[in-house]
Amino acid sequence: MTVVGTFGLSVRDQALEADVQAGLTAVEEGLLEATKSEVPFITEAAQHLVRAGGKRFRPLLVTLAAQFGDPYAPGIVPSAVVVELTHLATLYHDDVMDEADVRRGVESANQRWGNSVAVLTGDFLFARASHILADLGPDAVRIQAEAFERLVTGQILETAGPADGRDPVDHYLDVLSGKTGSLIAVACRFGAMMSGADETVVDVLTQYGERLGVAFQLADDVLDIASDSHESGKTPGTDLREGIPTLPVLRLRERARLLGLPEDQALVDLLDSDLSDDAKLAEAISRLRVHPALEQARRDTVRYAQEARATLNPLPECKAKAALVELCDAVVHRAG
Questions:
Q1: Is the distance from CB of 46 to CB of 61 less than 8 angstroms?
Q2: What is the pLDDT of residue 280?
Q3: What number of other Cβ atoms are within 10 A of residue 151's Cβ?
Q4: What is the pTM of this model?
Q5: Would you call 296 helix, strand, or coil by DSSP?
């Protein structure tokens, strides 16, 4: 058994491992090439998060999905680069919106160069992704455009909040389907599509990616509270401080509303207060870490991961399918 990448995926087949490693290496080279500019400062800013590393979860999914067709087809690596560039661009923008200080264990771009440079660098990455995408054909352009629309819509819906009478948890899960699930679904779709896999296989893997993407983000929600910055690569409690209603917080509010326990309401009141003070933020994190709402969020993560696993049932048994199943387990493990 060997481990591929920083995500911790176990691959039990040497040939599959070699294909995945070669694909990820080529993607890494493609990312560095795509983020070069004639202006040295733009190169520095654009490669800031590329060189900081990361799980490369989306390129990994592209390479695994490609195993259901020709894994050496010419469009696979470029499509993986497109998906990762798009993801990186959203991180630059997210850090501005969240006023984050740390990303992937390094100083965030907005903290280092200011909001304007961070936003424009994200735009530069979107432009480079579009340039590569144009060579992959009109279908790829349309698929990416639709996914990007869903991603932005999810971000806007998160900012706007649920409509009157809408269950906040249901609203949030819809947000995650757009913000995270859409691009991870595209990673699986591109890998299968570019490899020439059968259309039914493409559809199955797209559905798998959507569900896995939601589970992946729910695991991140848990990590924002349960881990330190060394584990997560970003400042713990960033979402809490910004008042972003992640699932553990929504589950807490739901519990406070249904049970009316004073200790639950006291924690809600703390979260609703000004958490710019480090001591108050630390108290909120500490209390949430031992609260049943965090465990409920973990169970929700497991549920989505299990749904992703079940989606794979129609696919033929093979090493790539086994690896995709193990990714579901890896997501659950991240959430503790």
A1: no
A2: 92
A3: 20
A4: 0.89
A5: helix
